[in-house]
Amino acid sequence: MIRYVAYFRVSTARQGQSGLGLEAQQAAVRNFVGTEASIVAEYVEIESGRKNARPQLQAAITQAKQENAVLLVAKLDRLARNVAFLATLMESHVRFKAVDLPAADEFTLHILAAVAQKEATAISTRTRDALAAKKARGFQLGTPANLTEEAREKALASLQHNAQTNLNNRQAAQLAMLLRATGVTLREIAARLNESGYRTRRGKAFHPMGVKRLLIK
User: Which of 214, 207, 169 lies closest to 187 in space, CA to CA?
Assistant: First the structure.
């Protein structure tokens, strides 16, 4: 029986206390494990995805090694959005798996992490440039401290949703290109993307024509 050490990450203390995001991760992991395997330990980290110093993750890695278990996360972006960090993780020689990409090998994970890092940098740059352009046109930029808690949460949720949609699309395209380069058909690529949980920008399942559009972007 395969043994797993589950690692969950949420970005804020509020998410950790309310279960927002955490419950979805736990449900995905437990559904993946089913009855054919076991979870020997669970670790929850409240930390930014861009920071590499995460004590709970380090503890999870240590226990996974001791238990000869597999480190399991619900989504790859819960592990890292930084190539150097992911490389360090793999150099630790701990076995790990992401529920959203169960068949991914180390090379695929490197590629997806590189895409995620590039996208995070691009989002930061676009946001900074957009704010500078608005300010130059005379717009009065709001101060987050003057916004209501509800307004801040809505704005953050919108930004995170848009960023994640864009990131998922880029990751899907990158994976499609990798598979196509090895001779996999469009139909098989569509099936692989759907099995891995990827969806089109409209939230639909991928079909061969949709994969073709991904490849020519």
Answer: 207
